[in-house]
């Protein structure tokens, strides 16, 4: 029974918890046991909160029995990325420098999940300071991909992606500055949503790059993500980038009807230099949507050719500003890979940074114009699948290409524009998952989730599970 429980989604577990046929204590113990069993293999967790989780589960059980059911996530055990603050709990950013840092407040998203009755099982590993896409951490070890443990899980939210994929957390949150929710979601075969910038409060999240950072759900299913968005969305005066605009009822709006939907396809950028099998998977999913009544329109977004440069200059400059003092005082305490990036971030001039913001402004305008004609854009989340742990290159149609440059090519524009972007599992290349990315206008998360649900309902993953779960 325990092995069956860890494979279930929130949408499957919630009714069982609500009607009392499943105890939060039984579910939490199943998840904790599995987290401990898989930790040596996957290394997803930084810390497991066994005692506190068991106590929270007992409290949730009492509340539900007494008729005080709080909603879909009440009694659901989950762990969060280790750059989200828990009051009184060590929050390391998977770094050496902050290994003993204890926040004085909960992050807003943590408070909201706590109020919704979530049971926190621990903190999850990440690429150090969220500044990387492999989660090969020099201080705490590499997180491994549950589909193939020789491969990266993606990053920087690699612990979140791996934990949800392998069942050691029922759901999670990630943060995304150039793709750090969508990259591991694509690589680990789960759902990952980067909301519109300002939709979800970033208060209590250690920043990577202020103007590019986002927080969003990483889940097993679309409805799980929608249910989490119902909890974490909304204005927060503690976050100066938070936008005060009405919040959708995300879960209620998921019907899966895409009849009349206009899908934009941008060939020059989003389908340029893509692995042939990845390309086939994504186009196959677009066809599945057109079979359901959607139609395709080819669109042009000329400024996308400068997007990688603008994203890099912006993220390098902002991240290096945040870590400037530590780079002066204790550079040796950073991992080699991110120390080099922080050094590079000292090089762009004010002119470079401001030119990048002009590119950004133009890109936003072009996306706005495109969304006058189409409802969503669909593209590969990544042009490639997972690479081997420790390798700096990845195979693209028989050629070895730079891993970082290629893996953020299609995700970075969503951060530059601040537009919402969803990665939904679309199938496989061999035994490795492929993600389909759906991008929409500002605050169109409900639309993206609905399109993602239409894809999910075609069962593109054919009910396949990672090997560790298949053996369970």
UniProtKB/TrEMBL annotation:
Gene3D superfamilies assigned: Amidase signature (AS) domain (3.90.1300.10)
Pfam families on file: Amidase
Domain of life: Bacteria
Domain (Amidase): residue spans on this chain: 26-449
Recorded family membership: Belongs to the amidase family.
Name this protein carries in UniProt: Glutamyl-tRNA amidotransferase
Organism of derivation: Sporosarcina ureae
Lineage: Bacteria, Bacillati, Bacillota, Bacilli, Bacillales
């Amino acid at each position: 029974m325990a092995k069956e429980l860890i494979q279930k989604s929130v949408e499957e577990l919630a009714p069982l918890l609500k009607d009392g046929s499943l105890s939060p204590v039984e579910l939490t113990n199943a998840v904790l046991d599995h987290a401990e069993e898989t930790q040596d293999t996957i290394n997803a967790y930084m810390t497991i909160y066994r005692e506190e989780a068991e106590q929270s589960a007992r409290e949730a059980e009492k509340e539900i029995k007494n008729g005080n059911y709080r909603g879909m996530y009440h009694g659901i055990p989950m762990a969060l990325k280790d750059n989200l603050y828990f009051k009184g709990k060590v929050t390391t950013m998977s770094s050496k420098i902050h290994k003993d840092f204890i926040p004085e407040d909960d992050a807003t998203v943590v408070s909201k999940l706590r109020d919704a009755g979530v049971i926190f099982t621990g903190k999850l590993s990440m690429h150090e300071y969220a500044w990387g896409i492999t989660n090969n951490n020099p201080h705490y070890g590499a997180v491994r991909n549950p589909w193939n443990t020789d491969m990266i899980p993606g990053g920087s939210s690699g612990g979140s992606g791996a934990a949800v994929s392998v069942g050691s957390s029922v759901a999670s949150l990630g943060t995304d500055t150039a793709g750090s929710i969508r990259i591991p979601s694509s690589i680990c075969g789960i759902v990952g949503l980067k909301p519109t910038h300002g939709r979800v409060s970033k208060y209590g999240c250690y920043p990577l790059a202020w103007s590019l950072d986002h927080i969003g759900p990483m889940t097993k299913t679309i409805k799980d993500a929608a249910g989490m968005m119902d909890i974490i969305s909304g204005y927060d005066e503690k976050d100066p980038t938070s936008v005060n605009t009405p919040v959708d009822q995300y879960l209620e709006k998921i019907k899966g009807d895409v009849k009349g939907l206009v899908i934009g396809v941008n060939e020059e950028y989003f389908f340029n230099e893509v692995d042939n099998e990845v390309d086939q998977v994504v186009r196959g999913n677009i066809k599945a949507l057109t079979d359901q009544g959607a139609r395709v329109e080819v669109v042009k977004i000329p400024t996308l050719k400068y997007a990688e440069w603008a994203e890099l200059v912006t993220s390098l400059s902002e991240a290096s500003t945040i870590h400037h003092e530590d780079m002066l005082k204790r550079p040796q305490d950073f991992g080699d890979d991110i120390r080099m990036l922080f050094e590079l971030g000292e090089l762009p001039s004010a002119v470079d940074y401001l030119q990048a913001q002009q590119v950004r402004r133009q890109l936003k305008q072009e996306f706005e114009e495109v969304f006058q004609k189409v409802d969503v854009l669909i593209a590969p989340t990544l042009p490639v699948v997972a690479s081997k742990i420790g390798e700096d290159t990845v195979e693209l149609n028989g050629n070895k290409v730079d891993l970082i440059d290629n893996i953020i090519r299609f995700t970075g524009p969503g951060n530059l524009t601040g537009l919402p972007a969803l990665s939904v599992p679309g199938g496989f290349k061999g035994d490795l998952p492929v993600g389909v990315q759906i991008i929409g206008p500002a605050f169109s998360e409900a639309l993206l989730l609905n399109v993602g649900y239409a894809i999910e309902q075609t069962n593109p993953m054919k009910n396949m599970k990672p090997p560790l779960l298949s053996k369970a």
